[in-house]
Amino acid sequence: MARKPEAERRSEIIDATIREIGATGNLNVTVGQIAKSAGVSSGLAFHYFKDKDTLFLAAMRTILTNYRRDVSILMKGATTPEKRLEAIANASFGLTSFRREAISAWVNFYALALRSPDARRLLYIYQRRLHSNLVYTLRPTCGARAPDVARRIGGLIDGLYLRYALDPQATDGSEGADHILRAARAEQTELHANDAMSVRDEDPNPMDPIAKPQELNDNA
Amino acid sequence: MARKPEAERRSEIIDATIREIGATGNLNVTVGQIAKSAGVSSGLAFHYFKDKDTLFLAAMRTILTNYRRDVSILMKGATTPEKRLEAIANASFGLTSFRREAISAWVNFYALALRSPDARRLLYIYQRRLHSNLVYTLRPTCGARAPDVARRIGGLIDGLYLRYALDPQATDGSEGADHILRAARAEQTELHANDAMSVRDEDPNPMDPIAKPQELNDNA
DNA sequence: TTATTAATTGATCAGTCAATCAATAATCAT
DNA sequence: ATGATTATTGATTGACTGATCAATTAATAA
Fold it and tell me: Where DNA binds (residue ranges) (chains A, B) (predicted)?
C-alpha cells in the first residue's frame, strides 16, 4: 500500500530486525516475523536484502553505527585523558548499547562471527576502532605501555558487557563503566612490576594504532 | 546394533554434540547430524535427551566440568597467590578450553543464555565459581578490595577469551593468560587512587565470596 | 529355554521457513 | 493520458527438521 523510498524502507526493516532479535533473544526470528513487525510483506524484505544473513549484518552495522555515534558525542566534550576514557566507558555501557535489543544483537553477533566471515570482518572493525581509541586515550598516561594496556581495557569492556548484559538483575551498565575506570587507574599508577614485562609490547602490531580516534566506515 | 550401557551412550552422544557444534560453529546442527556423528539413530538421541535444548545443556555441562577439572588440577601445585592466579589463567586459556569445539560451545552458550533460563542458571554457576576462586586467590594481596578486583579479573577473562577465541590468527590462548597476570599485578600494587573508591565495595554481595575454591555441582 | 527388560532403529508426521516469482499498485516523466 | 519505473504483495515451492512411536534386536534373569 503505502509507498516509501528505498532508504526509508530499508531502515524500517532493519529496525524491525533489531526489534525482533531483541524480543526473542536469538537469530531464529523468521523473515516473516521481521517483515510483519515492519509492516511489510516478507517478499519486500528479500527484495531489499538478498538473504537473511545480509539482513542481520545490516542490522549489526546499524548497532555499531549507533555505538560509534555515542562515543563520538561523548568524546567531544572530553578534554583530559581521564574524561576521554570515561566517554568510552559510558558509551559502551550507556543506554544505547545497553538496551535489550542491542544486547541481543551483540551476543548473537559474536556467535554469528564464528561461522560468517562477513560478521567476523565487521567485528574486527569494531575491535580495531575501540583499540585505536583506547591507545589514543591511554598514551598520555601509559606511554609505550598504551597498546598493551588498551588490549586489556578493551577485553574488559567486552567481558563486563557480556556479564552485565546477561544479568537480569543489572538494570543499567553504570557499574560496568565504573570498573573500566578503576582498572584504568590501576594500570596507570607509576610503580609497576609490569613495566619490565610489557616493554616488548611497544607497538606490537604496527598496522594497528593510529594517532587519532577512528572514524572507519563499516563497509568491507 | 552394538549395545552399550546408558552412561556410555549418553556421553558418546554428548561428545558428538560438542564435536558437531565445533564443526559448524552454531547450534543449528540437527539432531540427525549429531546422532550420525555418534554412530546412532536420531531416535536414540531423543530417547536419552528429551529434547534438543536438553542435549545442548548436557554438552555445556561437560565443557564446564572439563574446565573445572583443569582448574582443579592446576590449582593443586599452586602454593602462592601468584601461582594460583596463574593456574586459573592457564586453565581458562589452556588447551581444553581453547579447542575449537569448546570455543563454539562457549560462544553459543552465551547466546543461549539470552533465551533459556536453564542455560542462564548454568552460566551463573560458572561465574560464581570463578568469582569465588578469584576472591580466594586475591584476598592475600588485595584484602578488602578482593571482591571488587575479582569482578574485573573475571570480566577480563571472559572478554579476552572471546577476543582470542574469535581471532583465527590466535593459535593458542597463552597471550590471554599473560594479560590476566599483568592486569592482576597492576591491581595489586600498593598505591592506588582506587582504594578510596572501592571502600564501599567491601563485600558488595554478602552471599558471594566463600573462603575456599568452589566445587559446586552443575545441577540445579 | 523362555520371559523380561533395556537398547536401538528408522520410518513418519506435522510443522516450519528461506527464497522465488508472477502479478499488481503506486509514482513519475513526458 | 501513456508508458516506464519503482515499490510491494502474497501465494507457492521445496527442502528441512524436531519429535514420536511401533517394531526389532540384544542382553539378562528365571
Answer: 30-49
A165 and A84 co-located in one domain = yes
Residue B174 has pLDDT above 50, yes or no: yes
**Any idea what DSSP says for residue B206?**
T
Whether the beta carbon of A7 falls within 7 A of nucleic chain D: the reply is no
Distance between CA atoms of B90 and B179, rounded to whole angstroms?
11
pTM score, whole prediction: 0.90
Interface of B with A in 4-63 (CB under 8 A): 24-26
Chain A's closest residue to B100, CA to CA, is A114
Nucleotide C19 C1' to residue A56 CA (A):
16
A40 CB inside 7 Å of strand D: yes
B199-to-A58, B111, B151 alpha-carbon distances in Å: 44, 34, 15
Domain count, chain A: 2
Query: CA angle B74-B209-B144, nearest 5°?
Result: 100
Domain enclosing residue A182, as ranges? 71-201
| pLDDT tens profile A193-212 | 444 444 444 444 433 334 45
Q: What confidence tens digit (pLDDT) does each residue in B59-102 have?
A: 999 999 999 999 999 999 999 999 999 999 999 999 999 999 99
Report chain A residues whose CB lies below 8 A from the CB of B197.
178, 182
Residue B1, CB, strand D, below 7 Å: yes
Instruction: Using alpha carbons, list the distances in angstroms from residue B126 to A54, B63, B67, B133.
Output: 34, 11, 10, 11
B-chain residue closest to A115, CA distance: B25
B139 shares a domain with B32: no
Residues B75 and B37 in one domain: no
Question: Does residue B217 have a pLDDT over 60?
Answer: no
Q: Which of residues 123-182 of A touch B (CB under 8 A)?
A: 123, 127, 148, 151-152, 154-163, 166, 168, 178-179, 182
Q: Which amino acid is at B75?
A: M
A137 and A37, same structural domain? no
Q: Is residue A131 one of the residues assigned to a domain? A: yes
